[in-house]
Amino acid sequence: MESQVSGVGRRRAPGWRHLVSAVLAFGLAFGGAMAGAAEGAVGKKPSTADHTKFKELAGPFTSGEEVTKACLSCHTEASKQLMGTRHWTWEYTNPDTGQKLGKKTMLNGFCIGDTSNEAFCNSCHIGYGWEDASFDFKNENKVDCLVCHSSGDYVKPAGMAGNVPTVRTESPMGSGKFYGPIDLAKASQQVGKTSTENCGTCHYYGGGGDGVKHGDLDSSLNNADKDLDVHMASKAKGGQGFTCSTCHQSDGHVISGSRIQMTAADPHGPNVRGDKDARATSTCQSCHGDKPHTQHPMNMQVLNSHSDKLACQACHVPEFARGGVPTKMTWDWSKAGLKDANGKPYVTKDEHGHAIYDSRKGTFGLGQDVVPDYVWFNGKVTYTLQTDTIDPSGVVKINTFGGSPNEPGARIWPVKRFQGKQPYDTEYNKLLVPHTATPDDSAYWYNFDWPKALKAGAEATGASYSGKYGFVDTEMLWPITHMVAPKEQAVPCIECHTKDGRMGTLTGIYLPGRDSNKWIDWIGWLAVLGTIGGTMVHAGLRIFTKPKGTQEKHHD
């Protein structure tokens, strides 16, 4: 959606008010133009601090912790603030369900779980050195300031527990991939506000690769054009030039917006940030309000009425994975472990160079330009955890979206429906977290031994393991909210209002064009026939009652 202020409820001003409005509009436009010209002449406001001049950042630094210690000499409260956030703790108690969530406990159908694989997975943690349960969450110097604020050459390779290579390092060992050395002094002097690239370093690459998890978050957004995302495209490309923090604003390092506890419906007007009553949300309505359409009055009322049942994203994100980066739609772990003719693990790629089979992980199904599925969603999500008993006779839902048609707080949301097949204990009927990534004799990626890998994972997570395992079908929903298309490319009405349309299987709502009711149909046809009949009668009366004297005279 374009940024608009709703005109609902405004009355047409008397004629004399138009003159006043025009004068005011001219004055505001002239003043705005002058202000813009002045700003253009001065240029972008510079930072109040040049970090290259701080002696504390001159280095040399031998570790990330030394950089953080230097940062805290000025930003004294930053680490304390971060330590109270989910970005740091990776755990959170959901007030709706009481479940303890976060990456420490949650499962998925991609890499399945973090515990026992910390050294590999925790390159995306905003800290240094979390490789096992002994990590000190209270050590302020362990907070990584640079991963969010450096614009320099700063990399945290997988397999190093979130540390940075200060010498040239091969990671993983034997892979032939080398990183570093990172010049930490240079990186610390190139700090500023967070950028899209900073956030994307982790949020694009979750699940083992670019675009794997979310479907609406991948590296194509770093250089998006307007057709991909009207907000994140640069102004030079016709977009708004947003970064992630434009919507996901922070207060004391607490960042608004979360897929764990979402705001599914926000039936309020635009949210002016900074107001004392401002809502700490990152919804579409935060800027656009819940009545955003300002077209012709008839269309405006029809379109704005849709917001009572539809999330904005349902119309304004027509497809996801539109930027040329495919997203994983399926992942079958049961097919992992195959070897080539030489007894070696291998990777098979499609015609575009994307992996569709990996001996370490199994088979993948990829998707681009994917039409979402649609579900009723009230913002409440329940997760299947490792402690929960499952029913392996059907598809196990890793997460369940709450919501029904009659709930005022529920809306129709677009989702990515991810389907997996992953290990579970066949005696206890519980999902298992395998130890896969950290190089040792029990890691599946290195020994291809499921019993060893599952036993090691169970011991690390504190789960019971009978020694008997199988693979169960799973499903996980991912809400789609990025990659907002221009308003001209919103989902056409006919794609929903038809029997085989996008919402063909969605229940709980009457969709004209998709649904039928004999009484409504009869009334509709009677109205149509009545209109046609009335028009014909009126035309006939006009013809037969027209005075002869008014007939046109024709001359040769």
From TrEMBL:
Does the keyword Cell cycle belong to this entry? no
Region of interest (Disordered), residue spans: 267-293
What transmembrane ranges does the database entry give? 522-544
The UniProt keywords, alphabetically, are:
Membrane, Signal, Transmembrane, Transmembrane helix
Coiled-coil blocks:
none
Keyword ATP-binding in the entry? The reply is no
Looking up NCBIfam families in the UniProt record yields:
octaheme_Shew (TIGR04315)
Name of the protein in its database record? Cytochrome c family protein
Q: What is the lineage of its organism?
A: Bacteria, Pseudomonadati, Pseudomonadota, Betaproteobacteria, Burkholderiales
